[in-house]
Amino acid sequence: MSMNPTSKIRPTGATASMGRSGFPQVVSATGGEITIKTGASEAGFNPLDLLYASLSACLAMSARIAAGQLGVSDRLTGVAVRVTGEKASEGLSRIARFAIDMEITGDFDTAIRDEIARLAEAEICTVSNTVNGGAEFVLAVRAPHQDSSAS
After folding, report:
1. Arithmetic mean of pLDDT, 85-110
2. How far apart are CA 64 and CA 58, in angstroms?
3. DSSP E strand stretches across the chain
4. How many other CB atoms sit within 10 Å of the CB of residue 47?
5. Distance between the two ends of the chain, CA-based, in angstroms?
6. Which stretches does the entry tag as region Disordered (predicted)?
7. Does domain 46-133 have CATH number 3.40.1010.20?
8. Quick check: helix, strand or coil at residue 15?
9. Are the beta carbons of 93 and 85 closer than 8 angstroms?
């Protein structure tokens, strides 16, 4: 597969930083910033909200891609995806079940709407494929870099 020399690859990744108190500040590889909030009534995102947000956004974009693959994108008028989850009652702290509600609007019958959703969730969305696939974690722990010339 040849790469288009004018196409750009978007940098990905995020870094969360925090001190002894307060909440993490998360910065994306492209400079986007989010401050994590954990209070029950505090507006903002907590870490699980970010997981749900990633999955919902990926599925919405993937549904649009799926409509294109099926040749029906001209009939798609909108996609809304709501993701929630249930924490496991036993064992490690984790989400045991994701609840995904995908609303696909447009001039489609049930079979096409179902196929758009299936393709989006099972084949196209990188986030759902990753969550379902058991990705390997490679953890590196390090002390902060110290400048030896500062002595």
Report:
1. 96
2. 10
3. 14-17, 25-28, 33-35, 76-87, 95-106
4. 12
5. 52
6. 1-22
7. no
8. strand
9. no
